[in-house]
Records
---
Amino acid sequence: MDVRARWQRVDTEHRVLVWGRTVTRLLALVGLVATIAASMVGLGVVLGNALFWGLVTSVAGWLTAAWRDVAALDDRFR
């Protein structure tokens, strides 16, 4: 792999990592706002809403962390 292609790949990996972190933070914020808004309806709705947004946010965070780990492993074996 030539140097230019390598740097383009590094830039792309970084952009994907930043995008994943941003999406995770936005999902956490949306989940918090949605849970606060659902608190006016009742406890069951709040728990269901918090569980849903918590799961979605944790999956996004897990995928972001997995991407970071795979990119780091890929760099080690070159």
---
Amino acid sequence: MKNKMKSFCIALIGLFMVGNLIGCTNQQGSQENTTENHKSTHQNTSNLKKYSKDPDKNSDDEDFDLIGTLDTETSDQLTLVIDQKKVKVPKSSSFKKEKIGNENVKGKLVKVEIDSKRQEAETLELTPQAKADSNGVYEKDDDGDFKLIGKLIKETDTNVTVQVSKGKKTYKKAADYKKDTEGISGDIQGKIVRLEVKKNNEVESLDIDPEDQ
């Protein structure tokens, strides 16, 4: 009888130890999975800067922009297609769309301002390319002046020629014409440029934004 009781006690102790061992293993696995999930989430958001062409991305304090095609949007997240990759961007609590209203912007090229520290989307707006008409015009003033965007085909001492969806457009340089290449060195032919044009069709300025390229 004593031997049976002794064997029974040993069996109980063995079962108890095995149960504790399994419990510890499961708890450790759960902790590891939580850590990995947190690490994955952190990596996904902290890598947003690598998709940006905005010079401000090099600052820890300045917000920066992402340019991409809007693929999907939910109440708390945007998905952009940037260089053929889908990039998920969480929305901030103060997220808003600027100058869009109720317009459906899915499939259009958008600019999203990202909070540098929280890595969250603050605002979304259409890019000049998305707003441009067939003549490349994306903004018009009440006085008749306008802004357009297109590919620079040719620049001479007197004229600027750009390619827009409707074809080539040539504008005479104004007397006060100026050019800002934003630190882009070398030949700018073939680059996407923005022009400010007076109502008399004279181009007043030519600008290059790295985010348009």
---
Amino acid sequence: MMLFYLPGIYLLRSFQSRQWSLRWLLLSPLVAAMPLIALLIDAPVMNQADLVSKMTLGLVTLPAVVASIHLFRWLVTKSWRPLFTWLTVSLVISALLASLAIFVTQHASPHAIEQGEYYASDGWWFIGCYGAYFTAILLTAWIVVMAMAHLIQSAMQRVHRT
């Protein structure tokens, strides 16, 4: 996860704030060294994993990290509207995923549920996790699109000034 997050946050913050002080630039070797150290760590889980597997793992966990940071920030700053909007969208997506799962199960085979069988509600929270993860993917995509739009807009303004 260090392969993506630390250098990505450093570069994003550098380009957004355009902060090029000596102190900020002296931080760059440390930021570059952290992912290299993470690659050299011999974790038991990642013994057989290659670089692509590690990068894929980092990319898959990115939406969860982004959503966690935003949810924590919204809680600390008491920004209730985005928090409740995120929770509402997450619940709606969870309900849609649950109905899609039931629909696919019913139509996959005509005898998916035999007489006397029923859907167990023991794992209801699991579909909520899927909904929250999908909402986190949407939030991450929204942040990336808005950052790209902002960069394009600022570049267009600089071109028109000259």
